[in-house]
């Protein structure tokens, strides 16, 4: 049977239902489940803020264990995902959606199954073969497509855990997926008979275009052409949420600066308007 957009929509609904904590779930009464058995290579579920977080434990880390977000919904996989066998079918593991969990969080998770030694070694080999930075595998997916909404939810589930790691890289849906407003800006530049490369060169030469100030943060461009977000000093040592439009992209104590991505060929004021970045204390 041919899989259509209706199939993906239905699959998305099944996925969204599967991450909700139901009344008869082991997590529903708020008690802790003491997980036992093999640690590395094990798939476990952790209840967090009313949602179920499925993950694979990959390695021992300084503050706990390095984990990767996993899902049973293999049909939403992209080329950079790693597919591994499970008890009831294949699982996808997102190698770029990684985070650290504590010993206590592992202990309160429910263990589902563990990879055997050969499958775990294959997973480690697949990790080593991946590029350091994710490829643009989502650029052809519309921001409101089922596949994009699945991936956004997966990153929302891991947001708090990812936010407490040392990495300053933000995962911003508007820059990962096909975002119409960015295309509109591109067409606007074309209408002015100014191609993107010329615009980039022009902006790079303009020293006044390398910083843009707002009441909560500064957008700046590094010498290597990276776009960074620098929270205002008022938020130092304050637990905050960072939003890009409707999406929360960070929660916790802000770092000195965050990497947004490669410099886009628009004035920083327009980038701020497009992404609608804001910082709010909790």
Task: Describe the structure in your own words.
Helix 1 (5-18) packs parallel to helix 4 (146-157). The chain has two domains: 5-163, SH3 type barrels; 173-281, no CATH class. Strand 10 and strand 11 form a beta hairpin. It is 29% helix and 30% strand. By secondary structure, it is an alpha+beta fold. The strands form three sheets. A six-stranded antiparallel sheet has the order 4-5-3-2-1-6, with helices on both faces. Strands 7-8-9-12 form a four-stranded antiparallel sheet, covered by helices on one side. Strands 11-10-13 form a three-stranded antiparallel sheet. It has nine helices and 13 strands.
* Neighbour order of strands in the largest sheet: 4-5-3-2-1-6
Using the coordinates shown, work out and report the CATH topology of the largest domain.
SH3 type barrels
Q: What spatial form do the alpha-carbon principal axes imply?
A: globular
CATH-scheme architecture of the largest domain: Roll
Number of strands: 13
Order of helices and strands: HEEEEEHEHHHHHHEEEEEEHE
Structural class, please? alpha+beta
């Amino acid at each position: 049977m041919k899989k259509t957009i209706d199939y993906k929509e239905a699959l998305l609904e099944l996925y969204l239902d599967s991450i909700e904590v139901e009344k008869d779930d082991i997590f529903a009464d708020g008690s802790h489940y003491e997980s036992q058995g093999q640690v590395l290579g094990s798939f476990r579920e952790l209840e967090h803020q009313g949602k179920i977080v499925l993950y694979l434990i990959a390695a021992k880390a300084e503050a706990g264990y390095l984990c990767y977000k996993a899902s049973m919904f293999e049909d939403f996989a992209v080329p950079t995902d790693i597919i591994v066998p499970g008890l009831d079918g294949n699982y996808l593991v997102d190698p770029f959606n990684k985070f650290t969990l504590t010993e206590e969080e592992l202990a309160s998770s429910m263990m589902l199954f563990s990879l055997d030694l050969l499958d775990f070694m294959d997973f480690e080999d697949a990790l080593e073969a991946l590029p350091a930075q994710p490829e643009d595998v989502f650029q052809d997916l519309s921001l409101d497509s089922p596949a994009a909404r699945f991936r956004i939810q997966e990153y929302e589930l891991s947001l708090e855990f990812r936010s407490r790691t040392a990495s300053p890289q933000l995962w911003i849906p508007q820059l990962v997926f096909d975002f119409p407003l960015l295309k509109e800006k591109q067409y606007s530049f074309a209408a002015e008979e100014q191609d993107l490369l010329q615009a980039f060169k022009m902006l790079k030469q303009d020293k006044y275009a390398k910083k843009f100030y707002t009441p909560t943060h500064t957008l700046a461009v590094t010498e290597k052409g990276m776009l960074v977000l620098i929270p205002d000093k008022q938020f130092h040592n304050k637990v905050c949420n960072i939003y890009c439009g409707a999406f929360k992209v960070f929660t916790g104590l802000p770092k000195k600066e965050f990497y947004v991505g490669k410099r886009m060929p628009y004035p920083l004021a327009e980038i701020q308007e497009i992404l609608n970045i804001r910082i709010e204390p909790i």
